[in-house]
Structure formats: structure tokens, C-alpha cells
């Protein structure tokens, strides 16, 4: 005998303004099987929940329907309340009469009528609900951090310092990411590598961190608490266990003219190389595409010069398979290619460079040892024009957003230039100055007031060359006049864009991404470091453009989520999983094909002598996500979904 | 709606702009060749409209310095049409009589009025009477006096035509109907504009083979001051094995004066040509003048999109345009031919001739309509020049406007613009220009003497038409293609190659 309790929430005015809750309560109270029907202003509040629990106990209810807001808001709240009152939480269902009724209709009578229908259909479903117990799965207490920039390093250290195991995977030969390429960082003008390298070393030496550099993620399977990841260790052609990083091979390598990626094309490297002097690990790799030996079988100078015989040209890529309980994605960003602006001459004129290239010039470990010199003739520029918003905030180039860091780093560039080249004139074209962090506005004012940077409000239309100078045609909109400047160098504050393979990578991991390729967070305001996939967290610029303080903060936040996950021995999973009636199963394997999560296996049914008499489908409750695809596919009606059985669903529909 | 709101609404309708989208970055002003001359450069005009100060915008002098090069619209990150805003403001200003009383406005307006009155009367532009009319209105009798005499002597301007009215359109009532219709309120809806990602994709090139007959639209200037272009195009085509068939009874496309003052007129005049070309069974029509080609191409796009406009053209001409005929320029024609066909006809490669290929503003903008070549760094003219053995240089002012139609009314500004262009060409090693537009040629050639006298820091640079050079490379005698009729002596440089 069903004894269902129906609890109708006014939700303040949200529901009550369009639905007659009182009438609804009276009406549903007369429906067969409904033992009690109450309405109240805010059922999710403490007093509201107390009323609910009291009604369950007093009426010995066998099921509960809460007619209120979307289950996404409070299904968990009400199920917990039911459990506290002694009723299995899966005997509680939500009838959504807010998002699906009061919020989308204007006619009072018709909305009330609709609310009645919705509630009634959920009552009929709940009558057929079964008591379900959550499924427990073990948690592998090992975290995978993908990306060895400042965000990845921070996350790895935080997790490791809490005593948990971490594997840190970085695809470049060294840790460091883009922060290692910077000269000084705003707003403190700390030397970037000076503050970062101690962290890098710490991460490489930490007992709880296993560092895998020059490695990439090949595939990810599984689910929260139980990920199976295959990692490709790219062939370095250098034996990491014997190499001491002495650098003899690098000195002796005859191929010296390769454009250095770390120096953004402003400097050169050899074929066997470490990206920069403070690389962690300080073990070189051979760039197969540029190495003379790999191209035509000659040379091997590095091998001959290595006293420890660490060079091995026969190395292959290796794969390792590891289990993880949580994944932190910290894969960072790249800078936009400014050749999309034909009018700025990037790529055409040597002295038009982007912000990251300027960082390499200014950096003490850069190709010019920290001197600001023109790439064309190596002379010191007497004036530099900086163009902000050279790529961002431009719909016509498909980058609608603001890259957040360029106003700050352009001010910084003008200051570094003023400090290094006395008398050098920095002229900056801007649309706005976005300096919202702590000490940020003061920093930009310092560039103007102390280091005499000249700011012009307006965008630049064209850059061209005349008599060895770069002519910049912009505008001062505050004066309403065009401005033409003859510059020795032009620096474009280019946009921060996602990595070139961001979208493919997201598909490998199984997380969502936006139109640009930035990874999607679960909720922009309240859950900024969780992705929409349970167990995968985000940190740093891969989620959206941001500066170092925010990247570090996000990294620590991700780490805290991982630690919360690891604080439990077992994870509870929702019991909404499919199961198979093995008697009626025909073994057609349609469900195996249909399942998006590879959660269905083929199981042998044996007789007493061990002979296989039948093969049937069997759902792995650990992998099943409860999507129901197999149920719709099943031709023999053998599969069913707990919590959404066929009987329950039909009852819902037929009640309308 | 208040008066101001109504005016702003009118501007929104006639341009397709939603002025809320302008975020005042100023890139339009930065790129405007006339920006330094304006009281309210383009970004300020946009702000005046955005903030509701329409009357101040209408009275600004800036409207009469705008050359209509569309650089502003081409570079706007928010896809605003600033050039159309200037056009619409001019049209509104003239219609409402809310205009600046400055000299610039008087001169430019006098030019447009003289131009359009002339076209209304003849259907085509009678250049001498245009100039006479302009000079009478503005009392600028001595301007270009010596050039004028030279042109009469060389037969470019025929005083007899002016007197007898010969050489105009036959169906004059159709022209009158067009002008009458343009004085009615226009209900033509311009599609709404929104910020979008823009990337240049060239349209598939045509395929033209020797032996083909293609349509020919000379336009008004080729019959007059740009005679060399007409002569050299015809000679070039005959050397390439192409036959030209002139559109019968073609009319003036309206050029700058129509679109700068009356949107409807700017569409109806070229639309008639489209209808005629369609009716006469043409598929490809060569329009050597960049302005004519630009007007025809943009009008064709509007005709395809607007059923209403097609019906209006049918009511006036009796023909509903099918828009089958497509108008192309000389560079496009050469691109459409098989490179081998051109190569085998080159018997006198122009070795050692260093050229600055000057495209001007109208061949590459608007990027979507013209669909011809990269709007920031076009290279198709250079490809043709290389094919005929010449040496094109890399320079920075290929697409910067020369001042175009404001050559009479804003002569000092045109001299400044052509000065910057010529200086850059010289600095990058060019000995001469090659152009594909009669107005570019006139500004760089006819005005060069005065410009060099004023600034004194550029050498003499002959200005060749692309057709002249191709014809010469294919064996024509330079004098045969009227190279001797240029203002800056041009025979010597090509003769000694």
C-alpha cells in the first residue's frame, strides 16, 4: 500500500506567483496513494526540512515527491533529509514545477493545471520506485597533473606536500612552461626564472612526485577515482639514468642554426639541446627532424663526445600505463600568430615582434643576454611603439575576449625598456587599461609617472617600413587626431589563445571546451576549477586567460579538490546503473556497441561441469554512468535502469 | 521619436549599423588617408552618431574630405560600416540642407552636383562640360588650365561633343526615370551588420581563353581623359586574341558622386548596366576602370539579394536583371587567362623595369564583394608584371588611396596623398608605377608635376596602365598604345628596354 507524501514549495514568489500551491496541495491530496500533501514557503530551508521529516515519520510514508525547483538545485538536499528521517533517499523524487512551469508560463490557471500534471506523474513514478543503495568504488590515491608550467608545478607540490602521490607529465623536455620564458613578472618585477626554478627543482626532487618530461598523454579511460591512463614517453635518445647534464654534447653538436622554440625564433639552438640553461631535468633531447645523423646517417659527434655513453640513437617511444584517482589539467596557452594582421607587418618586418619575443630579449638568459636590440641590425632601439589589443577584443579575427595580461605586461615592458635603455622612449597605443589586481593600477601609473611611458588612446591601423624605421599609423581618440610615429621597434601585445591541440586533447581526456578551445569549468562562478567531468580538475590559462597569481591560486584550489577526493577510503557512486536479466538476454551485443562508456562486458554462463551454455551481457556498475542508451537498444527488454525503470517511466507518462 | 532619434534611426536603416557596437577604438581614424585634414575624423563622427549628436555630424567638414576609400570599414574590428555612415550623412545633409558652409563642402558639393547634372542630361559624363560647370560654380577658372589645354590638343576632351551633345545614352527617358526615382524615399533595406570573424577567401578565378568574346564596359573616363586606357586595353585584348563587345547603350555607373550623395541613385545607375549586359547575353564584362567595376560588383550583389530592387529596375528599363553577367577588371582578366597563353605571346619582356604596382583602394575593397586579392597585401598585379618580364618591387602603399574623386575639389589633399605614395614607391626602388584605374593614373600622373613642384623631394615617376605594359610586352609599339599622351613623360623608359 503506497503512502506518498507530496510537499509543494512556494519558493517565495518564484512558484507561488504563477501556480496556486494551495489548490495544488488540496487536489493532489485526493489522488489515490497520497497520504499527505503540504505546501510551504521554502521547503529547502531548515524549518521546511523539519516539516518534511516530521511528515515522513508521522505518516510512515513509503515515498516522497517534492514539487519545487529543478532537481539540479535540491534533489541532494531532500534526499539527505529523507535519509535522516529513515526513508531510503531513492524513494524521493523531485517534480520540477519551477524551471519547467512557473518560470516559463504566464497564464495562472494553465500553469497551475500543468503543475498538477507534473506532480501527479511523479507520484505515479515514486509508487514504483525501489530502495537503492549507493555503489562503493575504491579510490586510487594517485594524482595525475598534466602540464609542467607554474600551475601544474603548484598543484603537484600541494598534493605531494599533503602526503599523496603525484605523477607530473610535461610534453616539453623541461618543466617551466611560459613563465620560464619571461624576464621579470608584474607587479613586483621579480625575475621570473629566479622565483620559478626553486619550485621546479622542488617538484623534480619531491619524494611524492614522479616527474615525466618529454611525455604526452596517449589515452584516458575510466572515471573518478579510477582512471586508467596511457602515457607516451617520447624518445630522448639520451639515457636519463646515466646522463649528468654536463653539456659536452651540446657544445660539440655541429648543427647550431636551428630556430629556438624557447626563444620564440629570436635565437638559435643545436640539434641535441636543452631548452634553456636551468632546464629541469637538465638532460638534453635530440630533435630528430634536425639531427644530421637521423637525416643522413652521418655525424654522431655527440655520442663520441659523451664520456658516459649516454647517447642512444636506437631509443623508441615507450608507453607506460598507470592508474589515477584524479586528474589536474594545467596545459596552459600559446600566443596568437599575428600574421593574421596583414596591416601590422608581423612576419614581414623583422623589427615587429610580439610580447613573448620581447620577453626573450629582456631576459638575462635570452639570446641577447637581456639587452634590448633590434632583430634586424642588432642596434639598440631609441624608441619602441607598443600596440595593445593586437589580437584580443577583435571579432573580425575570431578573438572576442580580452586576454587580461597584456595591459600589465606592456606597462612592464615599457618599464624594462626605460631601465635598460636610458633615454629610450616607449609609446603605447591602448584601448583601455585593465589593471584590476592587487598593486596593478599603481604599477601602470608607475610606468607613466616614473618611467615616462607615453600612452595614446586608440588602435593602430597600419605599420610599414620607411628608411629603416617602422612607421606606425595610429590615432589619439582623446584628441581626435591621427598619430604617425617613426619607431625603431614595434611590439604587439598579442592575444593569449588555447594550445593548438586543445580541442583534440579535451576529447582525449573527456572534458568540454568552449568555442575558442578553453576548457569548460563546471560553474563559472562557484566551481571554477572543476571540469564538467567528475575527477578532472582545471588550473591555469587552459581554462581562460589569466596571470600568474590567479594560475597559482587555481592550482592550489584544484589540489584541494584532489585532496578532498583522496580523503575518503571509498567513493560513493550513484546507484543509477543498468542491470541485465540474464535469463532473457539473447547475447546480441547491441548494448555493447551502444554503450558510450564501454561499461558492458560479455559474460559466460557455465553449467555444473564448466561448459559454456550461454553468453550474456553484463553491466559493470563501476563504469556505468546510467545514461540508459543500452536499455533503449535492447531488443529483448532484458536491460533496465535502476532509478528509471521502464515501469517507472511508463507510469510517469501514463499519468499525464 | 524625437528629431534626433529619427535621424539616427534613418542612419541605422540605410547603413545596417547598430551604433552600440562601435567601441571607439579609433582604428578607422588611424587608417583614414584624409584623417589629418578632418575636423571630426571617422571615429569622432561615429561617436557623434552614437551619442545622438546627428546634426553636428551632418554639419562637419569631415564629410567633404572623405575620399570613399573604405579603409575604415575594411579594418573595423566590429564590422561597422563607417564608409556607408559618411555616405548616408552626406545624403542626409544635402537633403535637409544641414551642411557646413565651409569652402570644402562648397567645392566638393559643386563637383558632385556638376557631375550628376551632367549624367542626368546625357546618361554619360561629358567631361569638358563637367569641368566647365564645376569651374563656373566654384570660380576656379585657373585650376588645371594648362592640363586642360593639353588634353584638348591630344583629343582626350572634345569640345564639339560638349556642344552637340553627341555620345550620350540613347534611351534618355530611362535615365530621367532613374534620377526621378532616386529623389523618392528609398525603402531598400540594407542587411543588418554584426561583428563577425572575417577571413579573406578569393573567389574562384574565371577562365578566359583566346578566341572568346567578352563584354566591354568602358565607362565615362575611358572615352575622355583616360583615352590611353581604352586604346591600350583594346590593343592588349587583340594581341591576346580576345574580342571585346561594348554593352549597347551603357550609362554612367555613378562613380563616387552617386554613392557619396544618394544611395538609391548609386544602385540604379549600375543596375541598368547590369540589366543591359544580362539582356545582351554577356557572361563576363571587362570594366577597366576600378571605380566602375567596384560599383557594378557591389550593385550586382545587392540586386541578387533584393527582389524589390530588381523589380524597380524592370519597371524602368523593361528588363529584370538575371545577374548572370559579372564585371571584372583588367588584372582579373589577365589572371583568368592561362599563364602559358600570356607567356607565349610575350615577345618583348620588360626586363629591368622596376615597377610599383599600385592597386588603389577600390580593387580590393569591400573584401567580400570584390573577392579578388588579399586586402592588405595583394600580389596579383605583381604576378602579371613578373610574367611579362618586369620587376615589381615590394612597397607599403599599394592599397592606400590617392584621393580619388576629390581630385578637383580637394587638390591640395590629393597632392599630399600622392606625394606620400610616390615617395614610398621611389624609396623602395621603383622607377615607375603600374595602375589599373583611370583616376589613380590621373592623380599620380596629371597631378605629379604640381606635387613635385610643391614638395621638391621625389623624382619623376611615369605612370603606366597595366594594359599598356602588357600590350608593349606582346609586341605593341609604345606610341601605338598612347603612352606618349601621359603627362609625365613615359615613352623613354619603355622604349629603351
Write a short abstract of this structure.
By secondary structure, chain A is α/β, with parallel strands linked by helices. The model of chain A has no long low-confidence stretch (mean pLDDT 95). Chain B contains 26 helices and 8 strands.
Write up what this structure looks like.
The complex is a heterodimer of chains A (656) and B (497). Chain A is built from 18 helices and 36 strands. Chain A has 656 residues and is α/β, with parallel strands linked by helices. In chain A, helix 2 packs across helix 3 and helix 11 packs parallel to helix 12. Chain B folds into four domains: 94 residues, Fumarate Reductase Iron-sulfur Protein, Chain B, domain 2 (Orthogonal Bundle), CATH 1.10.1060.10; 69 residues, no CATH class; 109 residues, Up-down Bundle (Glutathione S-transferase Yfyf (Class Pi), Chain A, domain 2); 151 residues, 3-Layer(aba) Sandwich (Rossmann fold), CATH 3.40.50.11810. Chain B contains 26 helices and eight strands. At the A-B interface, strand 24, strand 25 and strand 26 of A face helix 2 of B.
**What is the percentage of strand-forming residues of chain B?**
5-15%
Largest beta sheet of chain A, briefly?
5 strands, parallel
Q: How many helices of chain B in DSSP terms? A: 26
**What is CATH's topology name of the largest domain in chain A?**
FAD/NAD(P)-binding domain
End-to-end span of chain A in angstroms? 22 Å
How many distinct domains of chain B?
4
Radius of gyration of CA atoms of chain B, rounded to a whole number = 22 Å
How many domains of chain A? The number is 5
Instruction: Report the structural category of chain B.
Output: mainly alpha
Residues in β-strands, percent of chain A: 25-35%
SS-based class of chain A: alpha/beta
* Second CATH tier, the architecture of the largest domain in chain A: 3-Layer(bba) Sandwich
Low-confidence stretches of chain A: none
| Topology-level CATH name of the largest domain in chain B | Rossmann fold
Multimeric status of the protein: heterodimer
Which parts of chain B are unreliable, with pLDDT below 50 for 5 consecutive residues or more? Answer: none
Biggest β-sheet: strands ordered side by side in the sheet of chain A? 10-7-6-18-31
